[in-house]
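Quick one:
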Amino acid sequence: MQQESDWAAYVAQMEQVLGVTLDETRRAELLTQFTRIASMAAPLMAFPLDDRLEIAGVYHP
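Output:
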């Protein structure tokens, strides 16, 4: 799971890429939400998958 400092660096990079400036309150809330989402996703991401599982099919019209 990513550390909060990693999320802080990500938010700072996205501010530059997207050309937006966040105040400290919004930045702190984003860090809280990213940390929360990462903790909820951690069990799913850690779930072991069989190497033989096929990827989802692709529909070709």
